[in-house]
Write a structure and sequence with these properties.
alpha+beta; six-stranded mixed sheet; 35% strand; Nuclear transport factor 2 family protein; SnoaL-like; NTF2-like_dom_sf
Amino acid sequence: MNDRHVALISAFYEALGRADLTAMERCYHPEVSFGDPVFLELEGRHRVMAMWRLQLSMGDGLKAEFHGATADHFSGAARWTARYRMSRTGREVVNDIQALFRFEDDLIVRHHEEFDFKRWSKMALGRPHGLLFGWTPMWRQTIRERALRELDNFAT
């Protein structure tokens, strides 16, 4: 167990819970990459932080509930729950997320999150779209393209 890296992950999620973007950014390496089922892959601290700014600005805001972390000298893991209201649909989302990390220079250089896309789409989009189409590759691609467009518009 690497206590410094556990503290780094904890600091990141505590900052996310406070919507403290400056503190979150301090946890990331300049060459950080982020991946999840919606955004797939984002490269660089500027782009990753733009995604977090977008997430925190949507609807009535993102509430983060951190459940704990483990880490060694090279990698780590954490669980957290995201709670927010989807601005486009007004639907409440409670998303359980598993995060994986890699470290370089005692900063997060790789941040990857996994969650159940079908479950998320049912909560976020409702019926019929989320329930009927949330599992299909074409629908996932549509969601991803929309999210990246929103990120591009937000980041400019």
